[in-house]
Amino acid sequence: MSQIRPLIPLLITAGILIGGNGLQGTYISLRALEEGFSTSLIGLIGTGYSIGFAIGCIYVTRILRSIGHIRTFSAMAAIASAASLAMVLLIDPWFWFLMRLIAGICFASLFATVESWLNAQVTNTNRARTLSIYRVVDLGSVTAAQYLIPAVGIDGFQLFVIISMALTLSLVPISFADRSSPGAPEAIRFDIKALWNISPLATIGCIVVGLTNSTFRSLGPIYAEGIGLTITAVVTFMSAGIIGGVVLQYPLGIYSDRLDRRLIILLATAGAMLAGLYLAFFAGDGEWPNYIGIFVFGAFAMPLFSLCSAHANDHAAEGQHALVSAGMLFFWSIGAIIGPLFASFMLDIFGPRALFIYTAAVLAAFMLYTLQRMTARSGVPADERSMRFKSLLRTSFFFNKLAARPEERKDR
To answer: Which residues lie closer than 8 Å to 276 by C-beta, 6 or more apart?
Structure first.
């Protein structure tokens, strides 16, 4: 604990940000539905956040190099807090789209700042403990924050204020962190063509994760409310999917290190697709059948990003791993921009169950593409891979550096 203690302020700040971001995502969807917005407009609002997140990913290193970590964090936290409060002043879908776009830029920058700072402070002796605590903070904060929705209620201004307060208070622990601000991070290079040449499968896979998992985060509350679940049940439904994502991360990762990684990607995709079909056609409107279905969906769908990133790193040459980590997050953002918007139109036309019909169709197409790539190129033998599987959060590309093992850090 003596080694971890200096990092506690940063971890507390990360927990506040992750919880506030998760709360805001679910609450905005439910509040927009309460205000009478159509599903397609709610999907558009979710797309706004993803556009902002992609912009933040591209520009955050330039900002960090220009003004440093604490100034970047302070500015982005203040802007995100103001954007959250502004949404209660004007109930309009296009204004909310703009505020969510701003929030996306801010949260991408905030996560990158915290994780870059953590990465500069941890050592090889406390890295594993820090990552473990970070994962507990991530899961605990995002799950607990969801239950503020039924506790406070979706009407009124209270939750907007709570979200704004959380963003403002995130400045407090980071202000008590080690006063030695870390040096400016290296510039991150985005090279779409190079990333495609490294691994077309991983590139398409990250887009698919954005098309499906991000759509679940944006429109899952609409599905749950549409089949008649109470607000508490909607929150439990979303939490079950998030918790499910933890269960198979490491078992799938371990087997992907031993076998052809594409085979495990195929297995995870098939499991998520079958869970999607179950939710669409068999779960009905019962609470527990839907909880079980979304738990299984999360268990198979959520590890796909980490599996695809590991597969790309299998084919990356020395010096390309930083490019891979930035590119994977960028391509995920592209999918997250398109997915909620397209799926929301389907929900408007066909009803809530269209969400998981759409999800299953996208995953089925990815399965076919995975099979095609398995015939087009041989897999990298397990003993020739420079990196092993790492369970990654989609918060910033700096998390990949944070999770890197000592022997993998030479080109990071």
So the answer is: 297, 356, 357, 359, 360, 363
∠ CA 163-169-174 to the nearest 5 degrees?
130
Asked if 72 contacts 63 with a C-beta cutoff of 8 angstroms, the reply is: yes
Residue among 340, 366, 393, 368 at smallest CA distance from 205: 366
Residue 412 has pLDDT above 50, yes or no: no
Straight-line distance from the first to the last Cα atom of the chain, in angstroms, rounded to the nearest whole number: 27
192-222 burial, b for 16+ CB within 10 Å, e for fewer? Answer: eeebeebbbbbbbbbbbbbbbbbbbbbbbbb
Q: Which amino acid is at 125?
A: T
State pTM to two decimals: 0.90
Q: Which long-range contacts (CB under 8 A, 24 or more apart) does 405-408 make?
A: 406/124, 406/127, 408/321
Summarize the confidence of residues 214-235 as an average pLDDT. 94
Which residue's entry shows tokens 């439904």?
237
What six digits make up the tokens of 398?
A: 């700096």
Q: Which two tokens stand for residue 160?
A: 């907007």
Find tokens 């269960």 and name the residue: 247
Tell me how far apart the alpha carbons of residues 343 and 280 are, in angstroms, rounded to a whole number.
14
| CA angle, 139 then 93 then 104, to 5° | 40
Please give the mean pLDDT across all residues of the chain: 87
Place of tokens 């918060």: 395
- Who contacts 181 (Cβ-Cβ below 8 Å, separation ≥6)? 68, 69, 70, 117
- Euclidean distance between CA atoms 347 and 33, whole angstroms: 13
Q: What is the pLDDT of residue 159?
A: 93
For 43: left if phi > 0, alpha if psi spans -120 to 50, otherwise beta; the answer is alpha
Indicate the DSSP class of residue 8.
H
* Structure tokens, 158: 């209270």
Contact indicator for 107, 51 with CB cutoff of 8 Å: no
What is the sign, positive or negative, of the torsion defined by CA atoms of 294, 295, 298, 301? negative
Average pLDDT for 23-27? 92
Identify whether the C-beta of residue 15 lies closer than 8 Å to the C-beta of residue 137. yes
> What pLDDT score does 393 carry?
78
In this structure, what token pair is assigned to residue 182? 């870390």
Query: Other C-beta atoms within 10 Å of 9: how many?
Result: 17
DSSP state of 213: H
CB distance 213 to 91 below 8 Å? no
